Structure formats: structure tokens, C-alpha cells
Amino acid sequence: MTARTATVVRDGFQYLEGARWHADRLWFSDIPLGTVHTMNADGELAVAATVDAKPSGLGFTPEGVPLVVTQADNKLRKITADGGTEIVADLAGIATGANDMWVDSHGRAYITQIGYDLFNGADAQPSTMVVVEADGTVHTAGEGLICPNGVGLAPDGNTLYVAETFTFRLTAFDVAADGGLSNQRIFKQFDSLESDALDGLCMDAVGAIWVTCPFSSEVRRITPDGTVTDIVSTATPGHFVVSCALGGPDGRTLYLCTADTDLERMSNNFEGTARIESVTVDVPRMS
User: InterPro entries of this UniProt entry (predicted)?
Assistant: First the structure.
């Protein structure tokens, strides 16, 4: 087991999500402040978009168009060159708390949803994935998921992984040539909510998963056979880590979105402070 500790790159945010590396920059959303940021490898920031609807998961079409999921109104939007957004698909009535997203090489968006009114104390309810095809068609996939959160596609495109937060497990699906999901199964079951709740994830070049564990302030690397090989701790013990992405010039910088918060404070419009942290790892990002 390899253990590392991340260091702080930038602070001054409120609650960050949706970390993705694209076009030599880290992209991420500040949900309560309604901004999508980008940051280069030197830590220089820019605002890519402003959207007053709680932006969360991010992805990119094959043409490089940025997409963002908005939690407040359950919509998939594209980010325009002037920093605005245009609606691609309306998920209202299908999704509750649209959350994270993975966009495949065909422009198909796999979107997770909280599935119930978590921050107002509702009981957990099973839910589905929401899939938006490249032509804007919307349908659901999977079943019985409890707060599906981070999502990522293996490098060969044949397996989709989903982190279920409050059942502390990684679920896998086979992916057909047309993007259809089948053979839903538990890939990795952890032990307890207190230490093993899961949030965002990313994939490396050999198909291992980096998955964030907010309550234990760490990110774990899990190989395709289910072995945990690496653990990265946040710079400050006790801070949540909720999203991660591999990037940097050689693809070996693991970026973390961390937050000084808790579930009660999150219920108050994501009250808290947030940072970007990073650490160098051995295996680069998937291409």
C-alpha cells in the first residue's frame, strides 16, 4: 500500500465538484457560487461560465464542447464561448438532484442523480442513471442505485463504474457498442458509512479507479481486480474530499476538490470553504 498526502494548490472557493482535465486545464464547478472554473498546471484560474442553478458534473463532447449538469433545475447544458449556457436536455421529472457526469467518445452523457431530497432529511430512495444521447434523447439505465455519485468509463470503453455514496460500494455495468448498460453488479463493497462513503471518481491509464471518500478525508486507488493499492490523504485531516481528476503535463497529477464542511452545513447552501489540492502519482490519466 502506498500512502501520500496532498498539498494545497488554490483556495478561496465554497464547495467544488465535477473535476475533469481537458485541453491542458482542470475544470471544476463551485456549486453554491454558480461558477465553472478552469485552472492550468501553474494554478492560474479563469471563469469558464456563470450559471445560477448549482452547476455540478462536467464533461466534454467529442468536438470539445463543455457540458455541465445543474442540480437546482435538473438540466444538462452546454457552456458557450461567452461564458453562458444553453440547455441541451431537460431532466426534470426524471432526475432528482442531477449530480455527476461522464461523457463518452460518442457524446453520450451518463449522469448520476442523488435520487431524493437528501439535504432536507428525506429517506434514501433507489434511483437510476440518466443517459442523454448525443441527439438529446433522454432515458434511464440501471436500477436500485442508492445516491449514485461519481461515474467513469474504463479505458477500453467496455465497463462503466458508479460510486454509490451511502451504500459505500462501486457498481459496474457492461457497456454495449450502442452505449447500452447491462450486467449491473457490485464491483467493490466497502465496510461502513463512517469510513467508506464514496463520492467522485476518475480512471487511470490501466483501468484503475481513484475514488474519493469524503468522511475519511482520503482518495483510494482500486485496480480492476478490486485491490486497493494507494491512499491519498487530504492536506488537512477532517476535510471532505468529494471529487478528483488526473491531469497535468504528464497526466500524473491527481487533483482533489476538498471542503471544510459537513452534511449539516451542506444543507445550508453548501456552507463551508473549499480548495484544490494535488499530489503526484505513478500511473497517468487515461488518454
Answer: 6-blade_b-propeller_TolB-like, SGL, SMP-30/CGR1_Lactonase
